[in-house]
Amino acid sequence: MSENAFLTVTDLRAGYGGARVLHGVSLAVGQGEICAILGPNGAGKTTLLRALSGMVRVRGDVRLDGADLSGRSPDTIARQGVAHVPEGRGTFMPLTVEENLRLGAFVRRDRRSLRGLRDLRGRRGGSAVDADLERVHTYFPVLKTRLKQVAGSLSGGEQQMLAIGRALMLRPRLLLLDEPSLGLAPMVTQELFRIVRAVNEEERTTVVVVEQNAHLALSIAQQAHVLESGRIVLSGSAEQIRADEQVAQSYLGYRV
Ligand SMILES: Nc1ncnc2c1ncn2[C@@H]1O[C@H](COP(=O)(O)OP(=O)(O)OP(=O)(O)O)[C@@H](O)[C@H]1O
Ligand SMILES: [Mg+2]
């Protein structure tokens, strides 16, 4: 798979100031695959996603469909079709749901996003951005009923849906999700993961999901990597990792 992988990460090192957090991470994700990153608190999972979206300085090699992304700015990486839904969601609380969604289209690769800029306040124009808004509503019907509501007044689950919906406005080729289940009730989390799976299946969007809820992440992923202290200590298919009881206990914190 590695020869024709869509995302390839080779010997990635990253950190904050002088503090190195990732010590040479290598992985490959095929086009249209879902890859889960598991591991304990402080392992470097968030830092790995930040490194992929250009938010921390990196050494090593990151390629998306052959294009070199290492050392590129977050803006350039977003234009390559990488959408990052960060830990804590990153929605703009004082803006409405619709404004948040339209903002998600700003850095699209196509020039139609300029139209989206003008449409930020909701002027109708039948633009491609409007069409994408409709597309997001089919995945998250609840957002359609909340369009004029400020994001800060949404429930936690709705905010996470908005954050993912906003990322989808970019028409991403690679979707990076950091702990989408954080702080949400199990039912809401299951619904979110069902939608992520649907997006992946219908749009062939490649997904890298960081998740504490290993069981849930492994239920939608094809492959998984366990990160510990900035190194990948285990990689395999989701079934392999789920089936390994010792792994489940020592790294994933549950019994299979
Ligand atoms: N902005 C920062 N400045 C300095 N150090 C940081 C910063 N962010 C994270 N770190 C450190 O980097 C290490 C890895 O953090 P990271 O957030 O990547 O872990 P994580 O696996 O996402 O953990 P969690 O499961 O708690 O979200 C930790 O030791 C953390 O203290
Ligand atoms: Mg984290």
Q: How many domains is the backbone divided into? A: 2
Give the neighbour order of strands across the main sheet: 6-7-8-3-9-10
CATH topology of the largest domain: Rossmann fold
What does the main sheet amount to?
6 strands, mixed
Report the total helices.
11
| Poorly predicted tracts of residues | 113-117
CATH C-level category of the largest domain: Alpha Beta
Number of strands: 10
Q: Any idea what the CATH superfamily of the largest domain is called?
A: P-loop containing nucleotide triphosphate hydrolases
Instruction: Indicate the mean pLDDT.
Output: 89
Radius of gyration, Cα only, in angstroms? Answer: 18 Å
Overview of the structural elements:
Keywords: Amino-acid transport, ATP-binding, Nucleotide-binding, Transport. This protein is of the alpha/beta class and 256 residues long. It folds into two domains: 149 residues, Rossmann fold (3-Layer(aba) Sandwich), CATH 3.40.50; 86 residues, 3-Layer(aba) Sandwich (Rossmann fold), CATH 3.40.50.300. The chain has eleven helices and ten strands. The strands form two sheets. A six-stranded mixed beta sheet has the order 6-7-8-3-9-10, sandwiched between helices. The chain has a four-stranded antiparallel beta sheet with strand order 2-1-4-5, with helices on one face. A hairpin with a 2-residue loop joins β4 and β5. α3 packs parallel to α7. The chain is globular and about 45 Å long. Bound molecules: adenosine-5'-triphosphate and magnesium ion. Magnesium ion binds next to α1.
